[in-house]
Amino acid sequence: MKPLHCLTLYLRPHFTFHFSLFTLLLLLPAWCAALPLDSPPVPGGIAVVKLPEDVAPATLRYRDRKVLVTQQDGEQIAVVGLSLGTKPGRHYIKAQTTQGKSLSIAFTVEDKAYEEQHITIEDKRKVNPEKRDMERINREKQQITAALQQWSTQQEVVIDFVKPVEGPTSSPFGLKRFFNEQPRNPHSGLDIAAPEGTPIRAPAPGTVIQTGDYFFNGNTVLIDHGQGLVTMYCHMNVIDVEPGTKVATGDVIGKVGMTGRVTGPHLHWGVSLNDARVDPVLFLPAEKPAAE
Ligand SMILES: [Zn+2]
User: Ligand 1: distance of its center to the CA of 190 in Å?
Assistant: First the structure.
């Protein structure tokens, strides 16, 4: 049987196959094991965890952060973001039952090795910022962090995304980065190469929570999709939305550019879940292998 995208299987309402619950539970681990991107749970990935029936969803916490919960066929499922710094091994979601009893729900994170990337940046100030830049950088970091930690209670969260820009991946998520041979934070998003001016579309419904022109990220938009799922768009040429703008899947939020720290025009697309930066590819439909 053809492997299926685990998230798709669980969470797409229009999923057309029908299995008995028992069959589904038997088959799911085998399918997941065959998929390198969304399973097993790895640093920079997500854990899809089935919850006990009597758990109270609003009480779920992973590392003191609220957790996205969705329902499928009457079952509650937690979708947990795992930051790149997550240590392999046993991890626990803390929760309470509807009767107020404390629970620990375990899942196992496996290791993943990410490649190194060495980039040469001509503007040295973008690698070793001057003292006067640091105040701006720190202020912007606080604003961006606050937006990424946004939580809005929302019953229906769409987590099967549409790609915001069509184009080849110029830099995948998770690379260990060196700018001008100096180690920096790993790549926290997916870079999609596209010509300047290409429209950028919202991958799912949400509300714009922040826009800005930042030192490293250039013109940036952040969208809240609900329950701790926030997406980020950087280096834009033009921003077409403002904080408070409600977007539907496919709405244009701006255009591809090369503002901030870049070597060419592209979209840096970030996805954050329970304040963990995770691989955006996990939210896209599995790409068909290229025809031979
Ligand atoms: Zn990037």
Answer: 6
Residue 218 vs residues 88, 154, 200, 221, 247: alpha-carbon distances, Å: 34, 30, 15, 10, 21
Gap from CA of 234 to ligand 1 centroid (Å): 8
Cα 29 to ligand 1 centroid, rounded to whole Å: 32
Is 29 a residue whose pLDDT tops 60? Answer: no
Q: Please tell me which residue, 182 or 74, carries the higher pLDDT value.
A: 182
How many CB atoms are closer than 10 A to CB 203? 27
- Compute, in angstroms, the gap from residue 136 CA to the centroid of ligand 1: 20
Better-predicted residue by pLDDT, 144 or 16? 144
235 or 180: whose pLDDT is higher? 235
Averaged over 196-224, what is the pLDDT? Answer: 97
Taking a C-beta distance cutoff of 8 angstroms, is the pair 67, 229 a contact? no
Give the distance (Å) from ligand 1 centre to CA of residue 161. Answer: 18
User: How far apart are alpha carbons 31 and 181 in whole angstroms?
Assistant: 40
243 has a pLDDT exceeding 80? yes
Q: Would residue 236 be called left, alpha or beta, if left means φ above 0 and alpha means ψ between -120 and 50 degrees?
A: beta
H helix or E strand, kind and range, residue 23: helix 21-33
Calculate how far, in angstroms, residue 270's C-alpha sits from the geometric centre of ligand 1.
8
